[in-house]
Structure formats: structure tokens, C-alpha cells
What we know:
Layout: H1 2-22, H2 32-57, H3 65-68, H4 71-104, H5 122-129, H6 131-153, H7 159-165, H8 169-183, H9 192-212, E1 221-232, E2 237-243, E3 256-260, E4 268-271, E5 282-288, H10 292-300, E6 306-313, E7 324-330, H11 335-346, E8 358-365, H12 370-383, E9 386-391, H13 392-395, H14 400-406, E10 413-418, H15 421-432, H16 438-441, E11 442-444
Parallel strand pairs: 7-8, 7-10, 8-9, 10-11
Antiparallel strand pairs: 1-2, 1-6, 2-5, 3-4, 3-6
Helix pairs in contact: 1-2, 1-4, 2-4, 2-8, 2-9, 4-6, 6-8, 8-9, 11-12
Amino acid sequence: xxxxxxxxxxxxxxxxxxxxxxxxxxxxxxxxxxxxxxxxxxxxxxxxxxxxxxxxxxxxxxxxxxxxxxxxxxxxxxxxxxxxxxxxxxxxxxxxxxxxxxxxxxxxxxxxxxxxxxxxxxxxxxxxxxxxxxxxxxxxxxxxxxxxxxxxxxxxxxxxxxxxxxxxxxxxxxxxxxxxxxxxxxxxxxxxxxxxxxxxxxxxxxxxxxxxxxxxxxxxxxxxxxxxxxxxxxxxxxxxxxxxxxxxxxxxxxxxxxxxxxxxxxxxxxxxxxxxxxxxxxxxxxxxxxxxxxxxxxxxxxxxxxxxxxxxxxxxxxxxxxxxxxxxxxxxxxxxxxxxxxxxxxxxxxxxxxxxxxxxxxxxxxxxxxxxxxxxxxxxxxxxxxxxxxxxxxxxxxxxxxxxxxxxxxxxxxxxxxxxxxxxxxxxxxxxxxxxxxxxxxxxxxxxxx
Length: 450
């Protein structure tokens, strides 16, 4: 989380400072309309800059994933930049329209236009000739972008519709990029602000093209075949095993992938619930019946059906040298731990496992399926992991205090959490209050991709 906050604020502050460098006397403006022109410029720069970064992050780029802490963190940053673009664009629109309304209501006087400046630069003259078109199309693209971003933020908006409508933001972005190029103060193009804006716009337009061509993650996709199912009715979950070609690069326990069985529904992210064996290239997903799509999977999926799998992604891979690890899996958040236990059981004694590392797994659940719990206990025993089942109705909720009672060596441990966001935040606050180094040793999967 620390790095995505740094990236977010560094981008916004950096663009603002570059603008101040280009407009050092902005707050010395003698008139309100002079200030208005400056505020429209800076809000426009922040809006298109934020949207450009969000477009690039939508491509799921490989290079920043490790530094940002995984694709789940990258998508959180993508969401932040989308919200920042929305806020900056609304403020930009208000600076553009508000004074016009005030003039119409008699609150302000329209400034007297002076003689038009003679423009000798042919490029600037060309941009000036396009101002009317850029303003008109930019306003409508703004309205469309606002609607699409708001829909993306609404949790109850169905994923299958989100998958279709969110791609339209690439079209809105292209129009807004044209709007920005034409209406950005021409002086800025010769300053560092203009150079930075040009780079962002070029990257954003390229990313928008990739999105519209539906080529996002294309180099990380393979076609797999469903080979088995196992349904756990007590916990309303379905385990699906997929045979993948040998071109699948392999994965580490704790990583996830996007799987698409229905083109109309689009690709959904699922944590991989199996270890990787190159001699038998198969991966498993465990899906909880939580929504329209996952609730129908048991009826829709068929043996032998082809499934497109993209990945792997994520940095929730249990990589540390702590003598103790504490795992907390809430509900379907148990999935990455199942994959890790299978990996440990298959590679017990090999160099990737510390001989003296002790692991405690706390599985918190509301629903109960005895077969699923028996299988979990078997996996834990094979991996030499100490399993603690916490059923809410029987044992109450798991707290930091209860974890510390079971694991007295918690100060020397790392904590790996996957589960409901609120539960994770509560544990973070609890351990932070006792001086636990969260940034270094509390690992949380932010499994929210919208």
C-alpha cells in the first residue's frame, strides 16, 4: 500500500508543481476571469494526467507489478486515478460553466474582449482553429466519462455490464485527449509540463487502442480445458480443475489468474488453488457462489469446455525468511493458502522451505462443509501446517488477541491475510497498536478488481 500511495501523490503533486513552474505568477492575476483561465488549465492537466495513468494501468503491465505489490494493488491505484480524474474533471467543468451561469444570473460582468493577438506560429494557429470543435466534443466526452466512471464505482452494477461499458472509457479518453491537446495553453508545450503531458497522452492513447482492440493481457493468455469439478454445498463453493498447455508459464502459490468461460460475461479474477507441476500442467480454481455469474457456474460449466486463462498475477507468494508465518483466510480467502499447502506438501524438504519455519493457519468461516474441512485438514497435515478452524457460530470471531494467544512468537512472524477487507483492516489496526511492523510483515490481498 505504501508504494501505491507514493505513486498516486507523486503523480498529482508532480503535475501541479510542473504547472506552477509554467505559471509562476498565477495567483497574482488581476481579474477573476484571469484566475479562471489558469484554474481550467491546471484542473484539465490533472484530469487528463490521472486518466492517462489509469488507462496505462488498465493494461495490467508487468514491469511495475512487483514494486506496487501485485496486480491487486495496481488495480487499487487504477481506481484511485479514476476517481482523481473524475474529481478534477468535474472541477474543471465547474470552472468552465460556473462563471457563464454567474454572468447569466447577473452576478458577474462579462469581461471586455480586447484585440485578438496575432498568431504567427502555424501549429498554434491550427490549434486555435480547432478550439470550437474541441470544446464541443470534449464536453460530451466528459459527460460520458462521468457516467461510465460512476457506474464502475457502483458495486451493485452487474459485472457483465461493467465489463462491457468500462471499455467505452477508452473512446471517451481518446476524445478528451484531443480536447486536451487543442486547449492546453500553447506555451506549456515548450515547458516541462508540456513534455510530461505529451508523454502521458501518448501512453494513454496507446493504452486506449490496446483496450479497444481487446488485446489486454493477450501475451499472457492460454486456452485450457475443464477436466474435473467438485462441489462443496455446505460452503457454496465449486472447485474446477483445468488442463492448460505447456505454454502456461507456471505460477507460485498465492497468485491468481483471469478465467473466461463466457465471452459475454468477460474474464473474472480467481485465486489459483493448486501448486504447479510442469509434468502435469493443470490449475484449479475455487469459486464461491456470491453473485449471478458464480452462482450459475455449476450449471453452465461442462467437462471438456474450453476456458481462456490469463496470468499469473499477484505478489501474495509467501516469500520471506521469518521463522514463523501466520496465515489468516476468511471465507473463500482460504484459497491461496490451499495452494501453498499443496506446494509445501509436494516439495517438502526442498530449498524453498525453511526447515525451522512454523506456520499457523487460521481459517474463519460462517458456512460449514465437513468434506471441505476434512480436505483442508488433510492438506495442512501433509504440509506440516498447524490448522485452527474458527467457525463464527461456534467460536466467535477471530481477533488479534486470540491469534497472539495461539502464537506467542507473533513478534517474529509475518502475517498473510486474505479475506473480507474490513476484517483485514481490523487485524492491521490491532497489531499496529502493539508496534507490529505492518509495512514489512503484514501482507494483505486486496482482491477487489473494480
